[in-house]
Design brief:
The protein is α+β, with helices and mostly antiparallel strands. Helix content is about 20%, strand content about 40%. The protein is built from six helices and 21 strands. The strands form five sheets. It has a six-stranded antiparallel β-sheet, with no helix packed on it. Strands 3-4-5-6-10 form a five-stranded antiparallel β-sheet, with no helix packed on it. A hairpin with a 3-residue loop joins strand 4 and strand 5. Helix 1 (about 5-15) packs antiparallel against helix 2, helix 1 (about 5-15) runs parallel beside helix 4 (about 45-60) and helix 4 packs antiparallel against helix 5. It is extended. This is Polysaccharide lyase family 8 central domain-containing protein. InterPro entries: Chondroitin_lyas, Gal_mutarotase_sf_dom, GH-type_carb-bd, Lyase_8, Lyase_8_central_dom. One of its GO terms (cellular component) is extracellular region. Belongs to the polysaccharide lyase 8 family.
């Protein structure tokens, strides 16, 4: 219904004036086998192909009405669909032909110095909520509700790459073909190194956390382990189902991911830093305290045009900073108001002295 009309209308457009009236008439008749207003293809590629046929035919026959109609109908699909519907979803994926799992929380937040990324993975056999908290020389990876619903193994790859230098471990030689990921059947054999976390045979539901260090020599590991233990970074971590948080107390920084709109408290302290916060809205958050000010940064992957409040046990003054009677401050952050800025990070800074 689509292939032949698309082929012949493309040829009609290419040939231009080098066609007879009879050929134009017959190709036009063939093209109407794919009129989208009669066959109702819904959305997706079938609709695009039918519109392509209409545009080819209209351009070849100088039919301005058909051109306007085709482009108008095509642009009607460039909207975010209701949850569960076909078309563009609020995470910018495209769902077609059947209901698919939707990962709503994919994105990140940054204050230009530090950052956080999050991703909710959803397949039909595995779901997991993950976040990565980026600091000076380390990345803390957190995961919650890692659920495998079938009797299969799940892995978290930490490294999988071609090996160009020798290591004091067993190295394997692998052969693979590009035809598993593309159109070419070229084979490659090379030495590789692979490192992963084996979560075991499902079904199960688990959490995990680990730290990633880059450009670190083996000889420096004892010193780093001692420093991180002294900084108590492993004692201020939360990887609950809907809430991930990490506080690096010596840096006076905290990063959060809250995945639903529910009141959530996070507290952490040691001998040199203490922080208590209350969140009410979903989003990705960063908190930073300096000598003269404190700041909160927020982003949300699917929401715009909303005021979000963060309650912090500090006193801070300035635009968006409301001091409360209990020696705390509500930091009011306005999410972007337009779709092109969806997911952008917004920072509010409060001065410690009025």
């Amino acid at each position: 219904m689509v292939s032949i009309p698309r082929l012949v209308t493309g040829q009609l457009l290419m040939l231009g004036d080098n066609t007879t009236n009879f050929e134009v008439q017959k190709i036009t008749e063939i093209s109407f086998r794919s009129d989208w207003w009669e066959h109702n293809p819904g959305t997706g590629a079938n609709l695009v192909w039918m519109l392509q046929i209409e545009l080819y035919r209209s351009l070849a026959t100088n039919n301005r009405t058909g051109i306007e109609q085709g482009f108008t109908r095509m642009w009607q699909d460039i909207v975010v669909s209701p949850l569960g519907g076909q078309g563009i979803q609020n995470d910018w994926s495209y769902h077609f032909q059947r209901t698919q799992l939707l990962s709503e929380f994919v994105g990140g937040v940054s204050d230009s110095s530090y950052g956080l990324a999050m991703m909710d993975t959803a397949t039909h056999n595995l779901t997991v909520k993950r976040s990565w908290h980026f600091y000076d020389d380390a990345v803390m990876a957190l995961a919650s509700n890692l659920t495998v619903s079938t009797q299969n193994k799940a892995w978290t790859p930490l490294a999988s790459r071609l090996l160009t230098t020798a290591l004091g471990v067993e190295i394997s030689t692998k052969t693979a073909s590009y035809n598993t990921i593309g159109p070419y059947n070229d084979k490659l054999t090379s030495r590789t190194v692979a490192i992963w976390l084996d979560h075991g045979l499902g079904p199960y539901t688990r959490n995990y956390s680990y730290i990633i260090l880059s450009n670190v020599k083996v000889q420096s590991m004892p010193e780093l382990i001692k420093r991180y233990n002294d900084d108590e970074i492993f004692s201020c971590i939360s990887n609950q189902d809907l809430f991930h948080a990490m506080a690096w107390l010596t840096l006076r920084r905290v990063s959060f991911v809250l995945r639903n709109n529910t009141t959530t408290m996070f507290s952490s302290q040691n001998s040199f830093f203490k922080i208590n916060t209350r969140l009410n809205d979903a989003g990705a958050y960063l908190f930073n305290e300096a000598t003269n000010d404190l700041s909160a940064t927020l982003s949300h992957p699917t929401r715009i045009n909303r005021i979000v409040t963060i309650n912090i046990d500090r006193i801070g003054y300035g635009q968006g900073c409301i001091v409360l009677s209990d020696l705390a401050t509500n930091v009011m952050i306005a999410l972007p108001s337009s779709d092109p800025l969806l997911g952008a990070s917004v920072t509010v800074t409060c001065k410690k002295n009025n």
